[in-house]
Amino acid sequence: MGVHGTINKGQLTLKAMIASLDGKTVYEGEISGPAKKAEILGKNLAKALYEEGWQTYCGCSHRGRNHKMTGMVYLIGAGPGDVKLITVKGRECIEKADVIVYDYLADAHLLEWARPDAELIYAGKQCKDHTMHQWEINELLVQKGKEGKIVARLKGGDPLVFGRGGEEAMALGEAGVPFEFVPGVTSPIAAPAYAGIPVTQRAMATSFAVVTGHEDPTKAVSGIHWEGLATAVDTLCFVMGVGNLPTIAEKLMAHGRPASTPVALVRWGTKTVQEVLVSTLEHVVEDVEKAQLKAPAIIVVGDVVNLREKLQWFDNKPLFGKTIVVTRARSQASAFREKLAAQGANVVEAAAIKTSPLELFDEDKRIINNTKQYQCIVFTSGEGVRYFFDALYKEGKDTRALGNSKVAAIGCATARELQKYGIVPDIIPVDYKAESAVEALEEELKGRGFRIAYSTKSSSRCNSTLFASSRYRCRYFAFI
Fold first, then answer.
1. Residues 65, 254: contact at Cβ < 8 Å?
2. pTM of the model
3. Cα–Cα distance, 77 to 90 (Å, whole number)
4. Distance between CA 176 and CA 185 in Å, rounded?
5. In the annotation, is 69 catalytic?
6. What integer is the mean pLDDT of 123-148?
7. 219 a catalytic residue
């Protein structure tokens, strides 16, 4: 909340603004009167703003002249490719955004952090294949900002390193839409690092430059100072330069760079599909054509390229070069995907299973409200745990509703999920076989009733064995 006051000839004018809790809406107000009644004027203005905000919250505001919507556009560096290289602030902006406008080079896994109701807009641009022109992107950001939306604009690498973030910011500023830059890890440094190539090295390279390999086609004369770059800078990193590689190599050699200078191209740097080609200025064009290496790639020129032989670390992991398809439910696949990716695998998620909560009927709700009557509650999966507690919370209850009931978990993953809700299972069978589960439960059950939280799609022998055991008064409840 902000308040500003001015006094002119004994008259006090107060101007104030207050934001809604979610930060999306700003309410403004103004009041004038005798300066000696400043306290009363202040209280009246505060009351008016409070009432306007409350009416809007309840959905009954007419939004008078003092009300306006204010958005915010975050121009975010999405990093060089590896989803984990985005900044903490970048992720926070994605998580709270109403709208996400993302580029071709922004990793798709970043969108997993988006709100379920967020609007996702692809604005990717490849060579000669533009989903949207730059002016259209500018207009889109302005439009969404003026609608009062929080916008996350995801741009590969850093938004201000050949990312045209400055152009988008100027369009927003001219339109009066607030914006912020969120810097990112830039690919001209990160991609060589993942290839085992440092852009600087003591006694070898004390300077480096980042150069565009694709200038504005409307320029009559090149803005690249080839004579200085060729000999005055130790390491050169060209972005968007694969299509102009013949010109780059020719210009550097023509202006004094030795033909034997090492050159590396790093394609899809930092991602598990990364490709690296090492050559020299003299032969690089021919080698790239033979390898059919395409954009996007970073071109690194300089003696530091030779350090790859000693510093290669990413593309020699045990599973690098392997593509593994994971068919588990998406909610279960992430941890498995990360373990595979940590070993260098390119993981493709093709979820063949989807879990969703079933509708709860009166009988189900009655069971939820009487969990204390059961001596033991058995959970057969992590999904069963999550949906059980979702149903419990919807009934206005929490873990205290379980009372003194024993809790059994079939499997370590189920046990870990229970621990997230503050519950340490009393019973965890030594293995996941139905017989072992029954044996582990026998001492706790002793002929009394118990509850099973399970999946209706499960073919678990544990479920069928427990149901078939007539010694136990078994009541079951499917949550998914």
1. no
2. 0.69
3. 7
4. 28
5. no
6. 86
7. no
Q: Which of 82, 155, 240, 406 is catalytic?
A: 240
- Dist CA 40 CA 54 (whole Å): 21
Predicted confidence (pLDDT) per residue in 276-299, tens digit: 999 999 999 999 999 999 999 999
User: Has 253 been annotated as catalytic?
Assistant: no
CB-count exposure of residue 37 (10 Å: 0-12, 13-18, 19+): exposed
Q: What is the mean pLDDT of residues 270-278?
A: 96
Q: At 315, which helix (H) or strand (E)?
A: none
Tokens of 64: 């008078």
The answer to whether residues 276 and 266 touch, using CB atoms and an 8 Å cutoff, is yes
Residue 378 has pLDDT above 50, yes or no: yes
Catalytic residue among 24, 89, 125, 146: 125
Spot the catalytic one: 72, 82, 96, 103: 103
